Amino acid sequence: xxxxxxxxxxxxxxxxxxxxxxxxxxxxxxxxxxxxxxxxxxxxxxxxxxxxxxxxxxxxxxxxxxxxxxxxxxxxxxxxxxxxxxxxxxxxxxxxxxxxxxxxxxxxxxxxxxxxxxxxxxxxxxxxxxxxxxxxxxxxxxxxxxxxxxxxxxxxxxxxxxxxxxxxxxxxxxxxxxxxxxxxxxxxxxxxxx
Length: 194
Description:
194 residues, single chain, Four Helix Bundle (Hemerythrin (Met), subunit A), alpha+beta
């Protein structure tokens, strides 16, 4: 009798479980117009955390600057960068003469650092640590606004996707964006903080 009760209980549990698994799933049927405008539910984004650069980040930036300076002096005979638009043609020479191989990602990012230093000098930006759901990055920030530029990967990402690198065009595009957000932030009323 005990075995029969155990068997009946097992059958009952299995039928309940199978019944739950076999229950129809409520899937909405959308028209083509609704499908075009459908918004997938997304989890709320974690707000970015912006802070001063850590000692380690500052040290890494200095190492990358030194690496680029050594490359410029060794391969192009340039003893120091000016951190002005005059340096853009030197950056382009590195690209055109293929003095950095496509697989040398850290060197491309070091070039992004000296490019970022140029943007700092030209536009009054400053280096910060920017951390969001995607990870931590070094970024350039305009004052204390939420306007950021990410110069470290500006060249390495283009190399990764086999895009042509036109340094002056990249500079002009970023310069236009910086001027745009500087204008907007100067024309907007100050934010009230609670």
